[in-house]
From TrEMBL:
Record GO cellular component, one term: cytoplasm
InterPro entries noted in UniProt: Acyl_CoA_acyltransferase, GNAT_dom, SNAT-like
Enzyme class: transferase
Protein species of origin: Canis lupus dingo (dingo)
Subcellular location field: Cytoplasm
GO biological process: circadian rhythm; melatonin biosynthetic process; response to light stimulus
Catalyzed reactions per annotation: a 2-arylethylamine + acetyl-CoA = an N-acetyl-2-arylethylamine + CoA + H(+)
Protein's name in the database: Serotonin N-acetyltransferase
Gene Ontology molecular functions: aralkylamine N-acetyltransferase activity
Pathway listed: Aromatic compound metabolism; melatonin biosynthesis; melatonin from serotonin: step 1/2
Lineage of source species: Eukaryota, Metazoa, Chordata, Craniata, Vertebrata
């Protein structure tokens, strides 16, 4: 006369099921490239008519320097990302758009994009703080640089970036401003970033 509990099925609410983490930050891989490109294309084509990086360039950077990327996943879905590469000159040039220079001490932030359904929720700011924290854990990285349209300058300044001046890079009639953030200004960031 033993208990025969194995004959009684568990109620569905009591079954253990695999769940994805509600929110996860991790470095991107080439396998993430299609999701990255979908978000980027939607974010930039409608506004600028161009993408900072196209699919083959995304795969290129995620193969060469995945540690300089960061994706924000919610329930397994990519909702925002940043892609960077190393650069070894004081200012950005046309070459900086496509090259990764492993000996460099500057990270060129190519793109920050947030999925359209998650915009206006502060995710871009939070991701950038996480990214700067991540960069601060990499001893070779001394600063981060980016180029943006004038309308975005206040956003990046609120995150610790400082004006460098007009960017030498233009895309058609589009002009950009170059900004930088020194990692020594983020000493408290130099801890384990989790990527």
């Amino acid at each position: 006369r033993g208990l025969r509990t194995n004959l009684i099925p568990e109620a569905p609410s009591h079954r253990r099921r695999h769940t994805l983490p509600a929110s996860e930050f991790r470095c991107l891989t080439p396998e993430d490239a299609a999701s990255v490109f979908e978000i980027e294309r939607e974010a930039f084509i409608s506004v600028l008519g161009i993408c900072p990086l196209y699919l083959d360039e995304i795969k290129h950077f995620l193969s060469l320097c995945p540690e300089l990327s960061l994706g924000w996943f919610q329930e397994g879905r990519l909702v925002a990302f940043i892609i960077g590469s190393l650069w070894d000159e004081e200012r950005l040039t046309q070459e900086s758009l496509t090259l990764h220079r492993p000996g460099g001490h500057t990270v060129h932030l190519h793109v920050l994009a947030v999925h359209h359904t998650f915009r206006g929720q502060g995710k871009g700011s939070m991701l950038m703080w996480r990214y700067l924290y991540h960069l601060g854990s990499q001893p070779a990285v001394r600063r981060a640089v980016l180029m943006c349209e004038d309308a975005l300058v206040p956003f990046y300044q609120s995150l610790g970036f400082h004006l460098v001046g007009p960017c030498a890079i233009t895309l058609g009639s589009l002009t950009f401003t170059e900004l930088q953030c020194f990692m020594r200004g983020h000493i408290s960031l130099r801890r384990n970033s989790g990527c």
